[in-house]
Write a structure and sequence with these properties.
Layout: E1 2-7, E2 13-20, E3 26-30, H1 41-44, H2 48-51, E4 53-57, H3 77-90, E5 97-101, H4 104-115, E6 122-126, E7 131-132, H5 143-146, H6 149-153, H7 157-170, H8 178-189, H9 193-199, E8 204-205, H10 207-211, E9 217-222, H11 230-239, E10 244-248, H12 255-258, H13 260-282
Parallel strand pairs: 3-4, 3-5, 5-6, 6-9, 9-10
Antiparallel strand pairs: 1-2, 2-4, 7-8
GO cellular component, one term: membrane
GO molecular function: hydrolase activity
Keywords: Hydrolase
Length: about 290
């Protein structure tokens, strides 16, 4: 495992970690609201690391990245876009497969709108949100989030803890092992309530980005997701019907935690295909990792 400090949008320092083979195709994992890179433990400690370069960042305001409290650090789409561009460029990831969970759907679309698809082999939207406005509340974004957002963004510590505990519990359909659940509470509580609130102080409509996509897309969504409702996944698929859908029965908002074996296997196949198509698209003949495909 290697640790990097990447200079993101407007000079903010981002904490980034990587595993696997440095000269292999890259997969960039982008976590969701109030999370950090630890949520991908079942991926970066899996056999994916045998054939891919796995990279996971702590988003601005999260984990071990810089976390200024002023809202303007989190409300500008260009800053999020530039963060992802900085990780790809400064770590020389080439054209990674982007894996985005929950709020990361917004961030990936921010990146695509600002920087295009030239450095993207494919995208795996995982319980991903791409629309956030009043109309989305209750129709695309569900009670697993809405019921806890006031407590999670307030300054009352007991109320904050209770809201985060209930939010994390509601992210999965089946009960997580106690150690995993407790660790998830810890990484959620590492994010200041003001920053959680700032992330929600924007309206997002990514429909124009999704209809214009021209890279392979895998949509992974739990059928029992009450945080980002399955309707959001269907909305994404309607906008980009070329995408592949993977629906997880009896699964909540985090398929990669509830069924990591299936998730990793599907991601492996998707990433192999996406990278191969990217190589053909870019007409690159001298690729050292062709044996993967």
């Amino acid at each position: 495992m290697k640790v990097h400090n990447v200079t993101g949008g407007a000079g903010l320092r981002l904490h980034v970690r990587e595993w696997g083979k440095e000269d292999a195709p890259s997969i960039l994992f982008i976590h969701g609201w109030s999370q950090n890179h630890l949520c991908w433990k079942n991926q970066y400690e899996s056999t994916l690391a045998e054939d891919f370069r796995l990279v996971a960042l702590d988003l601005r305001g999260h984990g071990m990245s810089d976390a200024p409290l002023e809202a303007e650090h989190y409300t500008e789409p260009q800053l999020w876009a530039d963060d992802i561009a900085a990780v790809i460029d400064q770590l020389d990831l080439g054209s990674p497969v982007l894996v985005g969970w929950s709020y990361a759907g917004f961030i990936i679309c921010d990146y695509l709108r600002a920087h295009g698809i030239a450095h993207v082999a494919g995208i795996n939207f995982v319980g991903a949100a791409t629309t956030m406005n009043k109309a989305a509340l209750g129709t695309l974004i569900g009670p697993g989030f809405l019921d806890h957002v006031i407590g999670a963004t307030g300054e009352d510590l007991p109320g904050n803890i209770e809201a985060i505990r209930n939010f994390v519990r509601g992210c999965t359909y089946s009960q997580l092992p106690s150690e995993v659940f407790e660790t998830a509470i810890c990484w959620n509580m590492a994010v200041p309530a003001k920053i959680r609130a700032a992330l929600l102080a924007r309206e997002v409509d990514s429909d124009d980005v999704l209809t214009a996509l021209a890279v392979p897309v895998l949509v992974t969504h739990g059928q029992e997701d009450t945080v980002i409702l399955p309707a959001m996944g269907r909305h994404l698929l309607a906008l980009y019907p070329q995408a592949t859908a993977s629906w997880y029965a009896a699964t909540g908002h985090a398929p990669f935690l509830e069924y990591p074996g299936r998730f990793n296997s599907e991601l492996y196949r998707f990433a192999c295909d996406a990278v191969e198509l990217s190589i053909r698209r870019m007409s690159i003949g001298q690729v050292t990792h062709k044996s993967l495909f």
